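If your schedule permits, I should be very grateful for your opinion on a structural question. Thank you for your consideration; the sequence and its tokens are set out here:

===
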Amino acid sequence: MANVKDDEIELPSDPDGETKVDKNGVLLGDREYKVRVFTISGKGDRLYMLSTEPARCIGFRDSYLFFQKHKTLWKIILTEEAKRDLIERSLIPHSYKGRAIGVVTARSVFREFGAKIVIGGKKVIDDYQVAAARARGEVEGELAAPEDKLPGEGDTYDKNRFVAWHGASSVYHSGGPSMPLPNGKMMEGRKRKVIVTGSNWMLEHAREASRFNSSITATRRSNLEGVYDAHTNVIHYPRAMQPTHARWEACDDSDGSSLERANEGRGVDPKFPRIPSLLQRNFMISDTCYVSPPVTGFAMPGSDVDVLDFELPGSAPMSESVAAALPSECERALDTIRQEITRWKDLWHSEVRDGVRAQLQISYNQ
């Protein structure tokens, strides 16, 4: 169970992030929240947000999935006295008197979303977790929400667009998805307008290539942590991260040579100590050893790979005209890679053999 202090889950602090927000959730350095913040009677100067408003700002339709997806946020249900106080201050309508009102501390929201919850927030510069943002490959200084409508000079930001009774549902009239996209945006941002000339075309091309590489790198890194599916409530991971084959091997370690025989021809160093004979007689002992292909492109081994929708490198048929045009060194390299593929595939067999299925003798005689 997580420790809760001052209405938020205790997490390790970030030295860079602490320079951007104080203990009560007040943003420092001319930063301002996109949504309304307020104090609650009896809780001092600590700032809070109605949980529905940051949820809609980030891209959720309601606060349920907002808290389900972000476990570091702590939801507080207001007491009757606190609700009456907010009604008197016109922060919530009188019709909400009989409802359960959830709030969340402004500091915990900023700690979780950083620049996304700040007006005109810029990646890394306005993020609380600076080191984590840089590790994800975020481009420092880039707008966290380029599709957001920023106020012009002399105007104020429209925070009521995320308030339910002020027509917050208009945020979703664009037909966007109910869950935010992997980058946390509801829709694609407008492209930056740049006049390309004969003197700056190479610079602009390099900038766009760098920006695109950074975005796909960040997306790939985020996929390593799994992608949440709201319909099944399951975290999905890339297929390349999942085991594809399993093999059981019964080893007799009485003479101490089973590990060498089991690892023979695989290039795997023995990692497990010898098993005492007393344990072998009385218990079933299983060890798990993960083996990866010598070359990543070898993909899946075994005899059932043909049913999948991809081919292994070097296994695709090659026409005689192409093979005849290959230089001798290319032919040798191609033969070598095919031999490696065959050696790798031969380590696995059918499910009956690798699963050590018993050969049962079924008789119908009484």
The first strand starts at residue 4 and ends at 5.
